[in-house]
């Protein structure tokens, strides 16, 4: 009886752990493998050391990736419009300040929240790990 009680007490903790993955159930954006490494000491990435700044890399993701310094952490999003079919909306979103704008429907997404008022899907997010002076963006 005691063993069953201990098992029932420990079981929720085993299944309650977060693997750190980001759930992006968006049928509009295909799942491409992302493995981006950013060296923050390089001049091209120096602005990421300050809150509300970003860098864009078009070599990965569906339409490219924006990496954004959200103040206390880094976030990364795909530049494909999340609420438009991938096959019909071929232009990547443009970044202005803390906003990403989809040219296909003029939706504006906040880079802090990944949301756009009235839109079904948020920006497609990627995982960002910080190790020393490097950012690792993966999915």
Structural write-up:
The protein is mostly beta strands and 139 residues long. Helix content is 10%, strand content 29%. The protein has a six-stranded antiparallel β-sheet, with no helix packed on it. The protein is globular and about 40 Å long.
Structural class by SSE content? mainly beta
Distance between the termini: 43 Å
Radius of gyration: 18 Å
The low-confidence parts are: 3-22
Summarize the structure.
It contains one helix and nine strands. It has 139 residues and is mainly beta.
Give the topology:
Layout: H1 2-15, E1 35-39, E2 54-57, E3 65-69, E4 74-78, E5 94-96, E6 99-101, E7 108-110, E8 125-131, E9 134-138
Antiparallel strand pairs: 1-9, 2-3, 3-4, 4-8, 5-6, 6-7, 8-9
Structural descriptors:
globular; three-stranded antiparallel beta sheet; 139 residues
């Amino acid at each position: 009886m005691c063993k069953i009680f201990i098992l029932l007490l420990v079981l929720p903790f085993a299944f309650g752990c977060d693997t750190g993955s980001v759930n992006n159930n968006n049928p509009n954006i295909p799942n491409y493998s992302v493995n981006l490494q950013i060296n923050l000491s390089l001049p091209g990435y120096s602005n990421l050391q300050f809150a509300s700044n970003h860098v864009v890399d078009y070599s990965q993701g569906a339409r490219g990736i924006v990496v954004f310094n959200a103040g206390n952490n880094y976030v990364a999003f795909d530049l494909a419009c999340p609420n438009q079919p991938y096959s019909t909306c071929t232009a990547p979103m443009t970044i202005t300040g803390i906003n990403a704008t989809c040219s296909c429907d003029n939706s504006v997404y906040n880079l802090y929240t990944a949301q756009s008022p009235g839109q079904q899907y948020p920006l497609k997010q990627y995982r960002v790990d910080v190790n020393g002076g490097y950012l690792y963006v993966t999915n």
